[in-house]
């Protein structure tokens, strides 16, 4: 009976180009990057031009799911703007995660306690919120291994 | 190269002024600077207005209230370095021969609390994910530096202690209150390791300078202050991780923008770090002041903790820093902050700063750093 069928929700990336596709199942999704064919520097998402050498010759490079914590802080107060995290606000860690591809990316961390520079982290791809069209908006964070 | 002097300086107190428009705030600073230089507005040939949060053509509105003399007035924006870039434009205008006398004014009227992220350049996805707390980037910078060099939370708190104590003597500061080390260390954590009493507040205020070709400065003052250097740089690739950045190379290593600016500024001024009598640096968070000691060569890399421990940067120390109380006590009206630093340094070099006067100050250095790694330094001498 069609009335009993649960409508399949569509997943959309929080930022176009940040993830490998498809976005389902979530556990198979990785962060996606760009590698400069000229100098080898790597960027999160789809880079328009290489900030190191200026080349526009980029290739797609899926990024590792494991990284190390380069530095961190704890966000103790609700961030300014239209933050889509839990309401009421729950403090969370924020860090630069160093990936083996030679790139450090800013990410929310699943923990706010016992964070340590150099600790091993693993990518978590998750639904952050539903947008106005009922799509599931997919975001990322990292959790200690 | 034609030499440029500061012949007038003015300021509107930094703080919160619900009953004053940004134009009124700016006018007070400009009028004070004009009066200081004993020059009428109608003799001003050009003007630059530094602002980030105010509407387009703010400079034109300020000029209109002083009398529409038809001169070129240009708004300038480069994040927290806006004021320095406005001064630099004024210097370049005089050096090019486009004018002999110009006004530089910085003004801002910013709401309370964390800065609005989209104005800072954060994208919607960063907003949704909660990566928009500006001080969190300073905090991550601090955490990494502490890890590498052994700077402690006590060193950071000592910077805040010094600057709050200096602020007591600055009637233009938003907060004029000394705090004990205990009060600072027990103040709420904003973003670890940064605490509330170690961080500056975005606020309101204005500052203004009258610049003049040095060869004509004697017409306006018997104590011209020479602009020995005014430089601005953006960071080299992978050298800065200030917000709204979201990625950074782990492979390429370049010097910090502050290091690059310092080298350029010292070369332009023909001086070395030991020649600086007094400095005003960007203490948007107390840790940042420590980094600036190292970038400016007041100490070696990783030695800033020792420098604050020794008391070298106190009024009366070897190299006093933020004798005005710094942005921690003044607050940071972005467009006005660097111009405000330079106003206080002009007064230092003229010897008119009362209880916060640094004895026999001859060379003053102001430094700002901002979003996107904007970095600027102005050096003045008498």
Structure description:
The complex is a heterodimer of chains A (145) and B (382). Chain A is an all-beta fold and 145 residues long. Chain A has one domain (11-144). In chain A, 0% of the residues lie in helices and 42% in strands. Chain A has strands spanning 11-13, 32-36, 42-44, 58-62, 66-75, 92-99, 103-109, 120-130, 136-144. In chain A, the strands form two sheets. In chain A, strands 1-9-8-5-6-7 form a six-stranded mixed β-sheet, with no helix packed on it. A three-stranded antiparallel β-sheet of chain A has the order 3-2-4, with no helix packed on it. In chain A, a hairpin with a 3-residue loop joins strand 6 (92-99) and strand 7 (103-109). The model of chain A is unreliable at 1-5 (pLDDT under 50). Chain B is of the alpha/beta class and 382 residues long. Chain B has one domain (4-113, 199-381): Thiolase/Chalcone synthase (Peroxisomal Thiolase, Chain A, domain 1). Chain B has helices spanning 22-37, 58-66, 82-96, 117-120, 124-129, 134-149, 153-167, 181-185, 257-269, 286-295, 304-310, 326-330, 334-350, and strands at 4-15, 46-50, 72-76, 101-109, 189-191, 194-195, 204-213, 225-233, 247-249, 278-280, 363-369, 375-381. In chain B, the strands form two sheets. Chain B has a nine-stranded mixed β-sheet, with helices on both faces. The longest helix of chain B is centred in the last third of the chain and has 17 residues, at 334-350. Chain B is globular. The two termini of chain B are 18 Å apart. The mean pLDDT of chain B is 96. The chains are: A mainly beta (145), B alpha/beta (382).
């Amino acid at each position: 009976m069609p009335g009993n069928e649960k409508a399949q929700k569509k997943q959309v990336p929080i930022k176009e180009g940040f993830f490998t596709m498809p976005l389902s199942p979530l556990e198979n999704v990785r962060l996606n990057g760009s590698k400069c064919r000229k100098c080898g520097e790597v960027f999160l998402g789809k880079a328009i031009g290489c900030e190191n050498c200026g080349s526009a010759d980029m290739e797609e490079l899926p990024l590792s799911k494991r990284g190390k914590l380069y530095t961190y802080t704890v966000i103790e107060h609700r961030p300014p703007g239209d933050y889509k995290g839990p309401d009421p606000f729950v403090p969370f860690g924020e860090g630069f995660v160093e990936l083996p591809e030679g790139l450090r990316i800013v990410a929310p961390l699943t923990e706010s306690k016992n964070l340590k520079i150099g600790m091993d982290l693993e990518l978590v791809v998750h639904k952050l919120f539903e947008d106005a069209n009922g799509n599931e908006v997919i975001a990322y964070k990292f959790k200690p291994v | 190269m034609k030499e440029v002097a500061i012949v007038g300086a003015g300021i509107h107190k930094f703080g919160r002024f619900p009953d004053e428009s940004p134009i009124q705030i700016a006018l007070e600073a400009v009028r004070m600077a004009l009066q200081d230089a004993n020059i009428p507005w109608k003799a001003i040939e050009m003007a630059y207005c530094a602002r980030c949060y105010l509407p387009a053509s703010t400079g034109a509105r300020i000029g209109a209230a002083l009398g529409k003399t038809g001169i070129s007035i240009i708004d300038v924006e480069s994040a927290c370095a806006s004021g320095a870039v406005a001064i630099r434009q004024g210097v370049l205008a005089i050096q090019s021969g486009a004018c002999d006398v110009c006004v530089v004014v910085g003004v801002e009227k910013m709401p309370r609390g964390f800065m609005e992220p989209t104005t800072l350049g954060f994208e919607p996805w960063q907003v949704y994910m909660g990566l928009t707390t500006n001080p969190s980037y300073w905090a991550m910078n601090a955490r990494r530096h502490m890890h590498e060099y052994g700077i402690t939370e006590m060193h950071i708190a000592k910077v805040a202690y010094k600057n709050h104590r200096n602020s007591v003597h600055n009637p233009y500061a938003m907060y004029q209150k000394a705090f004990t080390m205990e009060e600072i260390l027990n103040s709420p954590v904003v973003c670890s390791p940064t605490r509330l009493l170690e961080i500056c507040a975005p606020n309101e205020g204005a500052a203004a300078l009258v610049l003049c070709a040095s060869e004509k400065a004697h017409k306006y003052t018997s104590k011209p202050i020479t602009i020995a250097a005014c430089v601005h740089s953006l960071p080299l690739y992978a050298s800065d991780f200030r917000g709204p950045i979201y990625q950074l190379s782990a492979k390429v290593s370049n010097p910090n923008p502050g290091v690059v600016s310092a080298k350029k500024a010292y070369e332009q001024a023909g001086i070395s770090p030991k020649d600086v009598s007094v400095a005003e640096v960007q203490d948007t968070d107390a840790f940042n002041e420590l980094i600036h000691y190292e970038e400016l060569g007041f100490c070696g890399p990783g030695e800033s903790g020792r420098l604050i421990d020794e008391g070298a940067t106190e009024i009366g120390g070897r190299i006093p820093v933020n004798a005005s109380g710094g942005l921690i006590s003044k607050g940071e009206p972005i467009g006005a902050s660097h111009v405000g630093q330079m106003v206080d340094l002009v007064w230092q070099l003229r010897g008119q700063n009362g209880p916060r006067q640094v004895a026999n100050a001859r060379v003053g250095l102001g430094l700002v750093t901002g979003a996107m790694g904007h970095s600027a330094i102005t050096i003045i001498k008498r």
